[in-house]
Input
Amino acid sequence: MNTTETMICKALQARLEDKGIDWVRLDSVTVDKGERRIAAVVDLEGEQDTVDVSAGYELADDALKIVGVEASRPWMTGVLSLVLEAKGAQVARPGGMQGAMIKMVR
Output
């Protein structure tokens, strides 16, 4: 991971912990700006092996949209797709440090 990816990983981990999601640990995050994809290696409590997750993204000035998601476990791809469908794949870009982090993946 480069410095930007390390910062993104730490920010995402902090956000998960703030939400009380302490059973997920991000091992690494990589960003491919050219392909507009972000990938993560995730350690889930109770799982023996890590899970690889990747998603495409689109950025607008005020929003981040997730475009497709895949996981190394097919059932997890299905669950993540259902969550995005139910919750919406687009989120408003936050201000402050979180917004600055999102700008880094442009």
